Amino acid sequence: MKMFYEILYKNGKEDTIEVDLNEETTLLLREVNETLEEAMKEDLPAVITFGDGASGGHYIRVSDICRAKISVQEG
Questions:
Q1: Domain ranges in the chain?
Q2: In the predicted model, is pLDDT for residue 50 greater than 70?
Q3: Which contiguous run of DSSP H or E holds residue 26?
Q4: Which end of the chain is more exposed for a tag (fewer CB within 10 A), N or C?
């Protein structure tokens, strides 16, 4: 299974991030989802990260996001 994050930034740019779901990533993505929700609700400064931080990844400042859609797909 895969989780997709469709992100719309305040500057109008759109981004889609695809993450494979497994035991390790499921727990980490739950934390990302909670951080994203809380930071957007309360307008808190936060950064969410995707990737391993060594070979690559995404670092996103939540204050730059105006909409985030999260979906899970088989495959």
A1: 2-73
A2: yes
A3: helix 23-42
A4: C
